Amino acid sequence: MNQSWWEFQVTGEPSLEELLFWRLQTLGAQGTASQVIGQMVRLTVYVPHPQISEETLTQLAQQLQADALTLGYTSPTVGWQIIHEEDWAQSWKAFWHIQPVGKRLLICPEWQTPPPTDRLVLRLNPGSAFGTGEHATTQLCLLALEAQALTGTILADIGCGSGILSVAALLLGADQVYAVDTDPLAVDAAQAGRDLNGFTPKQMTVAQGSIEQLAQRLPQPVDGFCCNILAEVILRLIPQFHEITQPGSWGILSGLLAAQGAQIADVLQGYGWHVVQEQYLGDWCCLQIQRTDALSQAA
């Protein structure tokens, strides 16, 4: 049976993205997408039509616009419509194109043919899951992965979304990746992306959950991990990073506004992590970190 969905879109200034994304989670979305549209960012969420009323959507739109004005930003444009499942699966494809990232990667939608290239081609069809390589936070993570010596390593991908970072790590030489996401649609998309790129479930294990589930599944501490999610969530996870790592392990943290980097770095230091490098793209920040020693008393 073909299900209908609310497609709820918000277009606003990039600095508002985290706030917008956070508010949109209150809808109980079963899929999310982010696109850069000129100088603006467009967030889209998908919610089953019977799950939420149009009155609730109207109230949320008013709240989002009030938030922006309170913070001194231009009021975002908000809209919604009912779409059918096949439309949901196809609507965003027109906005996504082949994209080189860094020096070695080429992100290619499944429905397009990559040109002749010496780059590592990463095929992707994320569906409704976050992570197409378009957004600055994903690009920063991909650049950070490219800078790591990944050959022979075992990694974790916390909040894997479409699985783009996991697949990139394997293409760049990692032996094995353990990926988790709390969204079941993201788990499906990551598994599909793994298969599309010719990797096995042993090379890329995907499961629903977060760092707790990772800690239970890992046979040994990982060499490194990626975590491209909201700053508030990263702050909650920092005390648990030691559960999947060992001294010397490294991490890549993104999903952070540039102004949030210092706060995250301060908290990390209290749990035995050192910021090795900071990278910025637009309003966004990526921290490359390393576990230096045993946990301090803050843990």
Can you put this structure into words, describing what you see?
This protein is α/β, with parallel strands linked by helices. Helices cover 29% and strands 30% of the residues. It contains nine helices and 14 strands. The chain has a seven-stranded mixed β-sheet, sandwiched between helices. A four-stranded antiparallel β-sheet has the order 2-3-1-4. It has a three-stranded mixed β-sheet with strand order 5-6-7. Helix 4 (136-147) runs parallel beside helix 5 (164-171). The protein starts with a strand and ends in an 8-residue tail after the last strand. This is Ribosomal protein L11 methyltransferase. Pfam families: PrmA. Its EC number is 2.1.1.-.
Question: Secondary structure elements and their pairing?
Answer:
Layout lengths: L3 E9 L4 H8 L7 E6 L2 E9 L5 H17 L6 E8 H6 L8 E3 L3 E5 L10 E5 L11 H12 L6 E5 L5 H8 L4 E6 L2 H13 L7 E5 L2 H7 L6 E5 L2 H7 L12 E8 L3 H10 L2 E9 L2 E8 L8
Parallel strand pairs: 6-7, 8-9, 8-11, 9-10, 11-12
Antiparallel strand pairs: 1-3, 1-4, 2-3, 5-6, 12-14, 13-14
Name of the level-1 CATH class of the largest domain: Alpha Beta
Uncertain ranges = 295-299
* SS content category: alpha/beta
Report the average pLDDT across residues.
85
Gross geometry: globular
CATH-derived architecture of the largest domain:
3-Layer(aba) Sandwich
Instruction: Fill in the CATH topology of the largest domain.
Output: Rossmann fold
What is the β-strand count? 14
Distance between the termini: 50 Å
Protein name: Ribosomal protein L11 methyltransferase
Family: Belongs to the methyltransferase superfamily. PrmA family.
GO biological process, one term: methylation
InterPro entries: Ribosomal_L11_MeTrfase_PrmA, Ribosomal_PrmA_MeTrfase, SAM-dependent_MTases_sf
